Fold this sequence. Notes:
Shape: globular
Distance between the termini: 25 Å
Number of domains: 1
CATH class: Mainly Alpha
Helix content: 40-55%
CATH superfamily: Cytochrome c-like domain
Bound molecules: heme C
Amino acid sequence: MLYMQxxxxxxxxxxxxxxxxxxxxxxxxxxxxxxxLKRFRSKHSDNQQQEMMIPxxxxxxxxxxxxxxxxxxxxxxxxxxKKYDDSFRIHGDGGS
Length: 96
Ligand code: HEC
């Protein structure tokens, strides 16, 4: 999954839920996310905080952005709700 391969999770969280100053990406409008990524890719940022995104966006192809934003937009809400349970997860979901 690109989101993991490209290291996005290290700032935006394993579940794209956002961490501290890093915005939530899960379930956000695809068009908006793509717009932002393309801006970062062309080295536009509106503030110093956003500069951090540029090195991660420059390597993305249009196809990568399409895949990433589709993934993020469709991110499962049920996964998001679990963010506070992280530390209690042992492994597996307990079977069926
Ligand atoms: C080094 C930390 C870091 C990494 C890694 C990172 N980001 Fe970000 N990202 C940020 C910061 C900081 C912002 C801007 C926050 C702000 O606007 O104040 C941001 C903003 C964004 C935004 C705009 C969201 C918004 O609400 O404006 C998108 C979309 C995004 N990142 C996607 C990604 C994707 C996809 C990846 C992986 C290719 C990635 N980011 C990797 C730190 C990171």
